[in-house]
Write a structure and sequence with these properties.
Organism: uncultured Frankineae bacterium
Largest sheet: 4 strands, mixed
Shape: globular
Number of helices: 2
Distance between the termini: 21 Å
Number of domains: 1
CATH topology: 2,3-Dihydroxybiphenyl 1,2-Dioxygenase, domain 1
Order of helices and strands: EHEEEEHEEE
Structural class: alpha/beta
CATH architecture: Roll
Protein name: VOC domain-containing protein
């Protein structure tokens, strides 16, 4: 249903580095960028190469938390995201585990990104 999602961040370059490094096991990479004012917007793609996630400069202070869940191909990828987040010093809200209250097989890790948003890597198998 969702074609792409844009998230405004305080520091595009720092957020790009966080997402690409932390979610490397999911195949996230920079796909394209274009100028926006004195900064830029960057499209992040997964395995299909299409920039489904966009980071752009925030126009002001954000006061609402966004929850963003990224698909993982398997549980090992979720675990790898967790390890990358810990190595980078990212806040881990919930370490990887199965969440049967969502549905059987829902395996996820929940993290805080650089702007305080709740980001998740999830495998539904």
């Amino acid at each position: 249903m969702i074609d792409h999602l844009g998230v405004q961040v305080a520091d595009v370059e720092a957020s790009l580095a966080f997402y690409v490094r932390t979610f490397a096991a999911l195949g996230l990479r920079e796909a394209m960028r274009h100028p926006v004012g004195g900064s830029f917007a960057v499209g992040i793609a997964g395995a299909d190469g299409f920039p489904h996630l966009w980071l752009s400069p925030a126009g002001g202070a954000e006061t609402r938390e966004i929850h963003l869940a990224l698909s993982a191909p398997d549980r090992a990828a979720v675990d790898a995201v967790h390890e990358a987040a810990r190595a980078a010093g990212a806040g881990v809200l919930h370490p990887p585990r199965e969440w049967p209250e969502y549905h059987p097989g829902y395996y996820a890790v929940f993290l805080r990104d650089l702007d305080g948003h709740n980001v998740e890597a999830v495998c539904h198998r």
